[in-house]
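User: Here's a structure from my thesis project, written as structure tokens. My advisor, Dr. K., wants to see whether a designed sequence matches the one we expressed. Can you design one independently, without my sequence as a hint?
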């Protein structure tokens, strides 16, 4: 991903996301993606954790959330959020790409508003392919990219094919 955001920039972004989430709840995005109870999900580029609480409710106690971000402030924000809300099935990782997760261990990966930031998108998409179960899916959106750019970047890697286009997200399944 690009260089780290300043502390003030992160706080401003976090405030903006809280405002956004009032009018456009993250729960709606997750429902559109098809998140189910018991899923093991990676929120790649989790930021301040806007998806964490609605995701925790959707997957329940039998599910697991992995939150990954390059920014230590984001990871700290997710940890505080989980602790404050008694959510115990969240694991955090500070990284710009490597997940540290076992092969074929995830039902879904969330890649929301991150693709345009990646320095090495091919490496990241390969890593996400590795950790997805054969029947898993990668759910993505990026308001900085057109629909054409999203689909061509995702399918151009040779690792994914478009599974379905929802109202708010594009879901891609693994190839191979």
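Assistant: Designed independently from the structure alone:
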């Amino acid at each position: 991903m690009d260089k780290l955001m300043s502390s003030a920039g992160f706080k401003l972004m976090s405030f903006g996301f809280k405002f956004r989430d009032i009018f456009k709840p993250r729960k709606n995005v997750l429902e559109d993606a098809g998140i189910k109870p018991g899923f093991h999900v990676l929120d790649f580029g989790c930021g301040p954790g806007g998806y964490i609480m609605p995701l925790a409710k959707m997957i329940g106690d039998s599910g697991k959330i992995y939150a990954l971000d390059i920014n230590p402030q984001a990871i700290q924000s997710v940890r505080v959020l989980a602790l404050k809300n008694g959510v115990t099935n969240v694991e955090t990782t500070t990284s710009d790409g490597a997940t540290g997760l076992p092969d074929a261990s995830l039902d879904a990966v969330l890649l929301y508003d991150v693709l345009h930031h990646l320095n090495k998108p091919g490496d990241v998409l390969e890593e996400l392919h590795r950790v997805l179960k054969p029947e898993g899916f990668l759910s993505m959106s990026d308001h900085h990219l057109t629909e054409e750019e999203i689909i061509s970047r995702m399918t151009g890697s040779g690792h994914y094919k478009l599974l379905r286009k929802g109202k708010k997200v594009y879901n891609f399944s693994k190839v191979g």
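When you compare it with your expressed construct, this may help: The helical segments are 7-23, 26-33, 52-59, 72-84, 121-131, 147-155.
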